[in-house]
Amino acid sequence: xxxxxxxxxxxxxxxxxxxNADLQVxxxxxxxxxxxxxxxxxxxxRTAKRPKLMLALKACRAGGTLLVWKLDRLGRNTSExxxxxxxxxxxxxxxxxxxxxxxxxxxxxxxxGALIFNIFSxxxxxxxxxxAERTRAGQAIAKAQGKKFGRKPFSALYSTEKIAEFQxxxxxxxxxxxxxxxxxxxxxxxxxxQDVFKSGAVDDIGADDEDQTTR
Length: 215
Prior knowledge:
Keywords: DNA integration, DNA invertase, DNA recombination, DNA-binding. The chain has about 220 residues and is an alpha/beta fold. It folds into two domains: about 10-120, Resolvase, N-terminal catalytic domain (Rossmann fold, 3-Layer(aba) Sandwich), CATH 3.40.50.1390; about 155-210, no CATH class. About 55% of the residues lie in helices and about 10% in strands. It has twelve helices and four strands; from the N terminus they run βαβαβααβαααααααα. It has a four-stranded parallel beta sheet, with helices on both faces. Helix 1 links the parallel strand 1 (about 10-15) and strand 2. The chain is flat and about 55 Å long. The relative contact order is 0.13.
């Protein structure tokens, strides 16, 4: 019986629907991760409950590797990053950052490698804290000036015509990635609202769903 190659699982994350995960996804593909084992999340790195991350971790097998584009895609909380990677190691699963060659399981077994991982983890949280501070300051100023802030709801960003254009591209034989590029729709948005893109029923998105795009 031929040897089965170690399983590679990829995890990509963007914080909002308006951001694009294609760069991360393409890097994971080039690293050898198959399409069906790339999990794309639209969520803040500070959020503990991330369904796609849970699926990615569940898909990992002993001897295999979980890959991310950068360490901060896995998360921006130092303690959670350390816990997640430790749990992977306990299961015999390796971890690697595609763009940060020094962050990998082999290096993390050394004192220097562990230190580098902790430094990058702390930097990820530091950057996240800075972003949060700037956001709060900007919101306070906007509120004082009577301005409204927050992202537009899905129905305001993507019309039924835009959805129809996407459907036509898919019907013509285009892949999801190519259809997204043609229509300018982020792949992460397609993943989050697959049912809408398949049915074309933009109005089916309830107020609760649209509110989620403003948090």
